Sequence to fold (399 residues):
Amino acid sequence: MASACRRSTEHVKGEPPGRVAKLVDARDLKSLDFGHVGSIPTAPTTQTQIRGAAMVYPYKVDVAVPNFAFALGKAGADAVEQSLPHLHSDFPQFENFNYSVGMDDDVVLITIEFKVGGIPTGGTMKPDEFNQLKALAGERRTFAALKSVEALQSKFGCNKFMLVLDAQNEEIDWHIAQRELINWLNDEPLARANKLNAARVEAAVPRPPQYSLGRVQSAMWVLECEDTFVQGTAFDLTDFGVVTNEHVVRGVIAMKAFRADKPTVKHPIKILTLNPALDLAIIQIDGGHSPAPLVADESDMPPMSHIAVCGFPNFRLGDSGVLTPGFVIGTRPHSGVRRLMTNAPIIAGMSGGPVLGPKGGVVGVCVTGAGNYGDASSTEDHSVIPISALHILCPRATS
Fold:
């Protein structure tokens, strides 16, 4: 076996790219040009991956110094920075590493482990270790083939890998080295980076809750005045009764309530209490009964909380009612109450409808919005009265 401590050779310049690379002395490291990293694949069936770079100059390096490990680290850092810059911090810190390198007349073998902090360290691989790894590798040279060997799997991980490169006249093909580096980066390191990134996204935007329109429908009523054709929504709420907006029932005498699936069975209503400033009312529906009233949820709803607005927008015969998911996007004071603003459109006819929180409880009441979905973007005032305001309307009620 030839010594792993060979003399440094000069930096080779002026040769066409794409052939071979020789390892350079440490003092020449700054002169290495690692070329341009390609853009991220955009095909919808292709996972976002790191792409390799093209060498502008072949070069030499002495494997007895950490130059080759520096070169690999720089190639990895450049590939990540130019392909997936938003995940850069989730990949290994390429500037810090432990390496071990060995070679003979036919093969160059390097193991490298990137670490957090410290300084680069490493040296020549012991002959016994080199011979053992070379024997295990056999004719395998690609990352996938090497990792498939059970006895070599400990050499691969999120921050470590091994290269086995053919050598000829003390030359190796840098493009093969870089290709296998990129193949490794697109395996466990990329999977870990995507996992860390997904965790950050999920922490910033909570996982959407699962709502049931059917459960809400059984508690909602369509309110309609046969004389003025004013429409609204009401819903049964445990401990409070039937809740709606004050402006829906204001000054209306012939208001009737009915279920969306039984529009011909109409019930007279009676106003029990109302508050124009709050724009809330509690009504009684003669002969009406809800088998499963909704339950209030007075949890705090900060911006980016998941909600769902419910009701009957511009109700027509056959309509089922809607449940539209969205977010709390801010607050707006009104009559001493901090209303919630949402990006979920609230449409005429939904006034008085329940607004569900992420746990499925009622966190508010729809109150303002647009005349129809076509005009929904013309106003920012899609707002919700927090359900806690019912305690002002009904101070003796318990939640």
Summary: The two ends are 82 Å apart (CA to CA). The CA atoms of residues 26 and 65 lie 7 Å apart. Confidence is low (pLDDT under 50) at residues 1-48, 52-65. The chain has eight helices and 16 strands.
